[in-house]
Write a structure and sequence with these properties.
Number of helices: 20
Distance between the termini: 26 Å
Strand content: under 5%
Shape: globular
Radius of gyration: 22 Å
Number of strands: 0
Largest sheet: none
Length: 503
């Protein structure tokens, strides 16, 4: 049966999915007559949304590309929306302590956690790529074996990170430029977050496995459970509501670890339970050196790739902190709001990555490429709209989180300036994740190295310090880096070398 997605590039965006659905229905009979399996006829829009939220075992290697992207993206976007909602809610409650140093504690701690996040995301990229490729090859046992090796690696990494980070927390905050208040009163928050990093790594890994297999709805429910608990417990522990003790900024860390710990346990129960796209039996609960080595190879490159961008964020925080706690607090609030917009867009990017991995596993690279450009267009429309809102309403948005007249100008400037690059970055995110979904982790690594270390960091320092632009110089550097990432990624993607990567 011909791939009905071939009609997509030549149709207007608003009509492409619907018309492709009609073509797919017409091709259904032809495919059946040829003795080939055909996908079930697609239903209407609302039934598709219900299917995406409920979850199904749809085969994403066939059928209209636009619809497949949407069905995968809806739960992934909602998953990331909850993550971004928590990020905003967390900084909202902490900012109500009316202490810029408390906000700075969170910003600095998250900067310290960037290396752990880089490893978690790197492992997730490798795991998702391998699982998606095995699912596309119709090899569920191979997908299950890859998942087990990923979880073993994740547990080992989390133990090492906690053992090193917890005792060194005060020194790490000092190196990051924390104020005396942060080092004395915020170290508890930092230690708890470092000690409980296993909850974050397990959530990243297990949800990546679900997404790679096409079970995006399960990953969505896991994160809604975890961060829903975070949001409910956060103000209770921060302000001491009801029977809860008043713990200040430390309470935010306690709530985070409780919520994500419960979410990780639920995710694991769904992973080992019956009814999924693959089953984990006792026979595969062992270390397999060949699979482990392949996963380490993919994940190590992906970890370095993510570390490049993460380290650049640490460098940016260090530059902004030189202008005082007010500037750092404004930057922290502005970035949290930006994350609120960007994380759902990562959901669209993850949908493209899953489509790429499964299509390549099924031997259909053309379908993979069309899925990427389709997802990129959808992402550009959504993120571009949000960026316009941020530019027009930056002041009331930042004022919602803080009433400090010394902090608001920095937050407004950060939000407005960075948002100018959203149109470009919408495509950049999709393209980067698509390389990773194909198992080509080296190409985005090289791009990140150029964009973030050789362009963004030096440019931020030069604009902020040498040209006396202050924090605005940092914000401009972020916007320029976002735009450059998209342009360079598109050039490399068009070359098509990612289509030949073996995973």
């Amino acid at each position: 049966m011909a791939d009905s997605s071939e009609c997509l590039p030549s149709l207007p965006a608003a009509e492409s999915v619907a018309e492709c659905d009609l073509i797919a229905a017409a091709e259904l009979a032809a495919g059946s007559e040829a003795g080939k399996p055909a996908p079930a006829p697609d239903q209407g829009l609302w039934s598709g949304i219900r299917e995406a939220l409920r979850g199904s075992h749809r085969d994403y290697t066939v059928g209209p590309i636009g619809r497949s992207v949407v069905l995968l993206a809806i739960p992934m976007v909602l998953e990331m929306l909850m993550e971004s909602t928590f990020a905003v809610a967390d900084i909202y409650w902490i900012s109500h302590l009316k202490n810029p140093d408390a906000v700075s504690t969170v910003v600095l701690t998250e900067s310290l956690l960037t290396f752990m996040y880089a490893i978690a995301i790197g492992l997730s990229i490798g795991a998702a790529a391998m699982v998606a490729r095995r699912i596309g090859e119709k090899n569920p046992e191979g997908a299950a074996r890859s998942a087990v090796q990923a979880l073993v690696l994740g547990l080992l990494v989390s133990f090492v990170f906690a053992a090193i980070g917890v005792p060194l927390a005060p020194k790490l905050l000092t190196v990051m430029g924390g104020s005396p208040w942060v080092i004395q009163n915020g170290v508890g928050f930092t230690r708890i977050m470092l000690a409980g990093n296993a909850t974050i790594i397990m959530l990243f890994l297990i949800n990546a496995i679900f997404r790679g297999s096409g079970d995006a709805a399960i990953a969505m429910r896991v994160l809604w459970l975890a961060n829903g608990i975070n949001i409910l417990l956060g103000p209770c522990f921060i302000f001491g509501l009801g029977p809860f003790p008043r713990m200040g900024v430390v309470g935010a860390a306690v709530a985070t670890n409780i919520g994500r710990g419960i979410g990780a346990l639920y995710a694991f129960s769904r992973l080992v339970g019956k009814g999924g796209r693959f089953s984990i039996s006792r026979a595969i609960l062992r270390i397999e050196p060949a699979i482990m080595a392949k996963l380490v190879r993919l994940s190590s490159t992906a970890t370095f790739q993510v570390s490049i961008s993460m380290v650049s964020w640490v460098g940016l925080v260090r530059t902004v902190s030189s202008f005082g706690s007010d500037a750092l607090a404004g930057y922290g609030i502005g970035i949290r709001v930006i994350i609120f917009a960007i994380l759902p867009s990562w959901g669209m990017s993850n949908a493209a990555a899953t489509m790429v991995g499964q299509a390549l596993g099924a031997g259909n690279p053309e379908r993979a490429e069309k899925a990427v450009w389709t997802a990129g267009f959808y992402n550009m429309v959504c993120l571009g709209t949000v960026g316009l809102i941020f530019v027009l309403f930056a002041h009331p948005i930042i004022k919602f989180f803080t009433s400090d007249p010394n902090v608001i100008p920095y937050g407004v400037d950060c939000l407005r300036t960075v948002s100018y690059g959203f149109l470009f970055y919408a495509y950049g995110m999709v393209l980067t994740q698509s390389f990773n979904g194909a198992g080509d982790t080296w190409t985005p690594t090289i791009i990140n190295l150029f964009v973030f270390w050789l362009l963004e960091l030096p440019l931020a320092y030069v604009l902020a310090i040498h040209f006396n632009m202050g924090p605005r110089g940092v914000f401009l550097a972020i916007m320029i880096a976002f735009s450059s990432l998209a342009i360079v990624s598109a050039i490399f993607f068009r070359r098509g070398r990612w289509k030949t990567r073996a995973v």
